[in-house]
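Lecture 7, part B: from sequences to assemblies.

Below are the input chains for today's worked example.
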Amino acid sequence: MHQKLFSYINQYTSLTLSSEEETLIRSAFIPKKVKKKQFFLQEGDVSKYAGFIVKGAMRQYSVDDKGVEHIVHLYIENYWVNDRESATMLTPSVYNIDAWEDTDLLTITRPDMLDLITKIPSMAQMIRLMDERNAIASQRRLNSAISSTAEKRYEEFANNYPQFIQRFPQYLIASYLGVTQETLSRIKRQLFK
Amino acid sequence: MHQKLFSYINQYTSLTLSSEEETLIRSAFIPKKVKKKQFFLQEGDVSKYAGFIVKGAMRQYSVDDKGVEHIVHLYIENYWVNDRESATMLTPSVYNIDAWEDTDLLTITRPDMLDLITKIPSMAQMIRLMDERNAIASQRRLNSAISSTAEKRYEEFANNYPQFIQRFPQYLIASYLGVTQETLSRIKRQLFK
DNA sequence: CGCGGGTTTGATGATGCTCAAGCCCGGTGG
DNA sequence: CCACCGGGCTTGAGCATCATCAAACCCGCG
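Predicted structure of the full complex, as C-alpha cells:
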C-alpha cells in the first residue's frame, strides 16, 4: 500500500528515500477505504486529512443554492485530494469530496505532514513540486475558463486528460467544464462532422 | 528597497531573518523598474525572473485569436508576478505581464530562488505559505467561475478585493471576471437598485 | 421485461456578446 | 476660457450561445 507512495515520491525527487524515512512516512500515513458514493469530506466539515489516492477515483464539488452540483476537481490514482482552504484556515468546507469508484487512500493529518516536511528533505521537495504543478494546472484551467469557448475547453481537456474521459461519465465532465450535459452532448456532435 | 521584502517574509513566517540571511537575499534579488505599459514578460518569451512588487500595479493577460485580451491576474504591492509554467518548463509563455502603473520590483532567477530555499529555512516556509494561499485563491476563483453568475462573481470580487477596484479600470475588472465591460456595466446598474 | 443510469434531441427562453453610438470628465493647447 | 481629445463608462438593438425543461432513447443488468 505505502509502496505506491514511496515510488511516487522517488519519481518526483532527485533523492531516494532512506529506510528510516520510509518508516516515518509509513507511520504518518494511515490507509483508508472509501466506497463508491461515500464521502471523504462533506460540506460543513473541517478538512482534517489530506489523501493520496492509491487506487480509485474521486470527485470534489460544490452545490449551489438550486441544488446543482459543480465539479471543481476529478481525481484518480496518484492524485492528492483535499480542500486546502478548509485544512489551512480550519474553516468549514464548502465542498464535498466523495468516491466515484471504490477508493484506497493514504491519509495524513496536517500536523503530521508539516512534521514530515521538516524531517524529510525529499518530502519538502515533493510538496514544492506538487504545489508548482498544481499552480500551473490551475492557471491553465482558469485561463481557458475565461478566454475559451466551451468547445475549445472540451478539446483541450480531452487532449490533456483522456484518462478522465474514460473513467467519469459525460455529465461530470460537462460540469467540470462549466457547461450542462446537454451542451456538451451538442458540442461533441459538432466536433464529429 | 529590500526592506519591504524582509518584512514581508518575516510577517509570513514564525522565524526572523538573520543578518547573514538578509545579505544572501539582498544579493539574489535585483531591483528593476518597469514603466507603465512596458512589459515584464512578453508572450513567446521564456520567463527568467520572478518578481516581487515593492510598489506599483501590474497585470497578466493572454490574447486570443481575435486579439482580445483576457486578464488572468492583477497585481499590486506585495504580490509575486511570474508565469510559473514558463519558468518551470522553460517553455515560451502564452501570457503577457506588463505594468499598469510605474512599478518597482525585486527580481530573482529560478536557480537563485531554489538556492535560497535550500539555504534559508524561512524562505522555504514563506514559499510554501505563498503556494498555499495561491492554491486557495485559485480554487476559489475557479469555483466561482464555473458555479456563479457574473453578478455574484462581481460581488464576491468587490468584497474580497476592494483595492483592485480602486486601482484598475472597470474594463480590466470585467475581463478578469470573464465578461465584457458592457456586461459589467449593466450588472453594476442592477446592483444599485 | 423492466429498471436505472446515462446520453441525446428538440423547443423555448435567458444571459451575455457584438457593434455602434453617445456620454462623461479630466487634461492640453489655442 | 473654451474647444477638443482620449480614455473610460454607459446605453441600445440584434444576435449567438448556452441553460432549461421535457421527452425519448440507449444499453447493461437483475
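Note for the exam: The domain at 2-119 of chain B is CATH 2.60.120.10 (Jelly Rolls). Keep this in mind when comparing with the next example.
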